[in-house]
């Protein structure tokens, strides 16, 4: 039983994502980052333990190596991953809980992805923080029903794409165990553990998908290494990572990878805000949606395919698009009828 | 609804949380910057450079192609280029079915990353030809099938899905799959893959592909003209027990052990199947677990008494029941309902006392028991259970009686653990356990004809809710009759409503 192991992405899977997808890679990255942030925010509002939300992050990342990002609305697939992991955990949440939380997070009242003041010098001044208008996130029954249907659809889609393997080993508790074994004489354990966990959590958001390329023990060691460096802790003289079965090469990758998440996140938010700003009239900021990406693609003269391999050469398929919208409408009607 | 929603997150708690997060992040960024300025940084940079160089080298080794068409800017971490292109020199990846390669396959540390397996889409059930139905249980449908490509015979178990169930795919089925995927032991049925119907636009036909075994123990017991030999019982029990020891070691409770869920192949190998009720349970167990587990005849007394906190001991009770069944070919405790089951248990094992089972009176349903107070208890013999068991199994050796009566301890903490049981002297005494290969073969029903549908009464229903306040002892007709009968026969106790 591989309890502390995860299934990892194959080189083929990683390669495919970057080379064959119809979506330019930086759009994929922006979608990845914002959807993972949304997932985290939902986990918070649903009062789920971080371990559950983190598993949802990992399942979603795996799913997106199997199916195109444009298959489903980003918030729907995020909701499904949270719903699924919560269902399998001791903290199940009802579909209605999920609907309420996502409805709120996507509403103009939510502070999620509200433009930041300090993004860059040439960006327009940030709008005032959103005011809370309960009407913004009122959830009519038919909207709930169609969300519910879409979420269950996404749930089975995720399971199908992952062969029903929902196993996720997280590095968090391992890292704490390792820290206890290590002796950082000159620093407090709690400072360093906090920092370690912060590295592990931000790595979940990163389109580098470190959780899909490294095993938990390596992630834990790299996070500890970075944290120890950050707080100026004196590390053991020896090559201590080898005790935890991590070799220097892998450690090097992860150390650098984890350190770059911060800068990436900032760049990603800028990209997203630009996209939102240009597509949605009136409001800036907020969670990116499929239609934002479609708009961006059109502006760039790219097609709005479904993200299938090789789809980028085809002209916009209006008919398919219409069909998709009709399907959504039907699902909505069906759901409200049942 | 909106009112509730409003109070739930419109308040500042959430905003504060997000704000705090942003603030924390900012602070952390600042701190990183400050740190970077530090002198100690030079050392780190050296190390990182070293590591990065090594990394670059490895990457170079791993990817043959230049693969430099993507323009990583300075922001882009070097790490993200890692393993971007398929390694054409690498051995072909294992077929997607091998989600969990065997532990033995890894002496090469370079292959470490495959240890956890890989992920990918389900294949279609059309890769299999159905041969015959095996069984239609309370929960699913099982058939014998052949994989077209390899000719291998497998068992297909269909996950029962209620399309009207608006909570999505059943959590029991998902757990069953996950647990089977996680397990790798010779006495646990092996899951090969999960396949789906051809129409993947709607995932509503899900099949678990299992290794095929010719028999289940229940069918064999039903058809045997003579009971198993003592040596055969030992072999079966040892195998059962080593499978359970593996499960419990990994915090898995099976929660539905019974003879129809134990499979046997023609080489005398026993495997535990049907993980539809199984789940991971940490130690110590969480305070609230569903009581609706384990088919009635194999259900431990603490469950019948309504304990919400229980552990691996409930599986060991079932092992005791199975032990008895192997000896006589008849289920040991065939209660008609919960009360009757408890009655039969007390008949076989004696009554619990405050000494033998401290605290049992505090269990929810114990209040409806009327037992002689411990002071006036007549059952003060050292171990009344052994005496009663010996009477019921006159042919069983002393060691066998001691094992069986310890498994059937009313007090869960007195039951042996699976690994303790493996060490029991019963298995070391003559007759020795029979070699698996020497096992007799039986005509396989599963391999030939369609089996009749059969029912074990009161099998736990998946997704069923526990009745409020536990079992309603009052609504069960015949309790008083049954109890009185028992009293007349000198059972010395009765069940009644408080
Ligand atoms: N791998 C297998 N090889 C051969 N027969 C099998 C296999 N798995 C299951 N069976 C047969 O199918 C029966 C039902 O399987 P299983 O117990 O897994 O499903 P179930 O629907 O949960 O049953 P129930 O609800 O009646 O307990 C078993 O008793 C056994 O006879
Ligand atoms: Mg069964």
Automatic annotation (TrEMBL), chain A:
It comes from Pseudoneurospora amorphoporcata. Gene3D superfamilies: Cyclin-like (1.10.472.10). GO terms for biological process: regulation of transcription by RNA polymerase II. GO terms for molecular function: cyclin-dependent protein serine/threonine kinase regulator activity. Residues 297-316 are annotated as: Disordered. InterPro entries: Cyclin-like_sf, Cyclin/Ssn8. This is Cyclin-like protein. PANTHER family: CYCLIN (PTHR10026). SUPFAM superfamilies: Cyclin-like.
From TrEMBL, chain B:
It catalyses: L-seryl-[protein] + ATP = O-phospho-L-seryl-[protein] + ADP + H(+); L-threonyl-[protein] + ATP = O-phospho-L-threonyl-[protein] + ADP + H(+). Residues 1-111, 429-476 are annotated as: Disordered. It holds the Pfam family Pkinase. One of its GO terms (molecular function) is ATP binding. Residues 128-427 form the Protein kinase domain. It comes from the Eukaryota. Residues 21-50 have a biased composition (Basic and acidic residues). Residues 51-64 have a biased composition (Low complexity). Gene3D superfamilies: Phosphorylase Kinase, domain 1 (3.30.200.20), Transferase(Phosphotransferase) domain 1 (1.10.510.10). InterPro entries: CDK (IPR050108), Kinase-like_dom_sf (IPR011009), Prot_kinase_dom (IPR000719), Ser/Thr_kinase_AS (IPR008271). Its EC number is 2.7.11.22. One of its GO terms (biological process) is regulation of mitotic cell cycle. Keywords: ATP-binding, Kinase, Nucleotide-binding, Serine/threonine-protein kinase, Transferase. GO terms for cellular component: nucleus. Belongs to the protein kinase superfamily. CMGC Ser/Thr protein kinase family. CDC2/CDKX subfamily. This is cyclin-dependent kinase. It comes from Pseudoneurospora amorphoporcata.
